[in-house]
Structure formats: C-alpha cells, structure tokens
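dumping this here before i forget
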Amino acid sequence: MDFSLPAGVSTDLIQYREVINTHVKPRLSAWNKNREIARDLFQTLGAGGWYGLKASNGDLARGSALREAVLAEEISKTSPGVAVAILAHIDLGLSGLYHLYCIKSLRRALVPIPPNLQSPPFLSHLYEKSLEAETSGCY
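structure:
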C-alpha cells in the first residue's frame, strides 16, 4: 500500500514550510516573551489560502482534511502554541462562519428568508470585533 502524500499536499507542505521559516520562526521568541502572536501572521495565512476555505463559484468550499492535518502537524513541530492559535482560528472562527454561510445559502435556495433575518447583526458585530484585536493573546 502506498502511504505517500498526494502531490498537491506535498507541494503545499513545502510552501507552508517556507511560510513558517519566514513568518513564524524569526519572531517566535518575541511572541513567547510577550505571550502573544502578532495579528499579521493570521492575515498572512489567510492571504496565502492556508486556512482551508476557498471561495469557488460564489460559494465556500473546504479543502482536504489530509492537507489540513499535515499543515497542522508541521506548524506544531515549530510551536504547539502557535498551532493551537491557528487551529482555534480555523475551527472556532472560520468553521462557524463556513457552516452559517452554507446553511444560509441552502435556506435561500430552498425557502425565501425575510430580509430582516438574512444577516444576523450579532454575528457581524462579533466578527468585526475579532478583527479589531491587535494580537490573538495566545502563546
């Protein structure tokens, strides 16, 4: 049986290692000292498509679970604390938005939703507040 990684995952892993070497390792001791991770790391990961969610044909699509596991393992080799912060960002933040978005899309396709219920103000307020934070506060 062949247990090697698919070519796409192997290529992503090599590129992700470059991101870790460029954006994480040089700053890790400062983050540990300050007990926080700079916000721009999360922005860099999002801009690079490392969160596993992609816009495709006007919809959100999740990436491969194998890819996500391999990338999580790779960052945890450098810093388990940074890995936990990234995984929390993905699993607690982005996954919720993904599921809410998918449910809303499905409901719009099946049943008309009154305009006052289409965009819950509490969600956008919470998401905007999370984006205002300068650091994650995780170490």
